[in-house]
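Q: I'm writing a short methods note and want an example of a predicted protein-small molecule complex. Could you take the sequence and the SMILES for zinc ion and return the bound structure as C-alpha cells? Please keep the output block clean; save any remarks for afterwards.
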Amino acid sequence: MRFADFTGQERIKNLLRNAVAQGRVAQTYLFAGPPGVGKRALALALAQALNCLSPQGEDSCGTCPSCRRVEGGNHPDVLLVEPGGGALKIDQMRWLQQEAALRPYAGRRRVFILEGAETLTDQAANSLLKLLEEPPPSAVLILLAVAPERLLPTVRSRCLTVYFYPWPKDRLILELRRQGVPAAEAAALAEIAGGSPGQALALRPLLPQIQGAVEALVQAAHRRDDRALLAAAQELASREEMVLPVLNGLAAHGRRLLQEGGPGAGRWAGVLRATLEVQRFLERGVSPLYALAVFALQVRRALQAEELLPVGVAVEKEER
Ligand SMILES: [Zn+2]
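A: Understood, no commentary inside the block.
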C-alpha cells in the first residue's frame, strides 16, 4: 500500500514520509497501539517506499515490480515474522539475525516486521537485543505491539516508539460509511470497536450478538440482579472475541446515562469505572473468566452504593 492510499493516522504518515524524504528512516521502530488501527499497513507502506523502483516523492509508486511484490507479500527483502504457537521464540530471532546480516536481494533495504512483539519470550528478547543494538546497515526492524508495556524496557529503549492512537468516534463512523456500512450499523460499530476501523469491520458479523450481550448486562445492572449479572459476565467470558467490544458497548451506555443524568445515573459512574478497570486487567493478560468475575462484583458494589445526591438537593433538605 502507498502512504497516500491509507486513510487516517495523518501524523504518523507524515512522520514516516518525512523520514523517507530526508533519508532519515530509523533502523529500529516500535509501532504501538490497539489492534486494527494501521500499524501493520503503515509498516508495509514504509517497506514499500524504501524499496520502490520509481518513488513518487516520499511515497512509493504502487505499480513497479517491487511495489507489486510487497503488496503480494512475496518481496524477498520485506519479511514478516509472526508469533508461532502464541509467542515469538528464540529460534525465530536466530533466523532473523542471520537474515538481517544479508545484503538486500532485490531492493535497497531489508525490512523485518515483527508482529506481536509483546509475545517475545525473555530468551528471544535477549537475542533480539543484540540486533537492535547494532542493526546491519541495510536492515530496518519494525516491532508491532498491542501492549508495549509488556516488552522488556531494554528492548523498548532501543527502538523509536511511534504511538498509534484509536480513531475518534466521528472519524471512524465516516470511514465506515465510506466503506459502505449503513449509518445505523456504522454508529453501533463505532461504539464497540475501540477506535479501530479494522476491528469495526471484523466485528460486523458479530454485531447482533454483541448488542445482545451488552443488553443482558445493562438489564441485569438496572434490575440490580446479582445472579443475572454474574451469569451474563460468565457467558461473556466464554466468548473471548466479544469481551472487549461488549465492555466498550457497556461503557458507551454508562456515559450516555451519565450525560443524561436521569434517576440512578450516579451509580453508573461506578459501573463505568469498573468497565475501564476490567479492560486494564485484560490488557495485562489476566484471564477473562477471572477479570469478569471481579468485574461483576465491582458492578454489584457500585449499584448498591447510595446514590450521591447533587449538592443543591442536599442543601435544600437540610434547610427544611
Ligand atoms: Zn514502486
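A: Remarks, as requested: The domain at 3-163 is CATH 3.40.50.300 (Rossmann fold). DSSP finds 15 helices and five strands in the chain.
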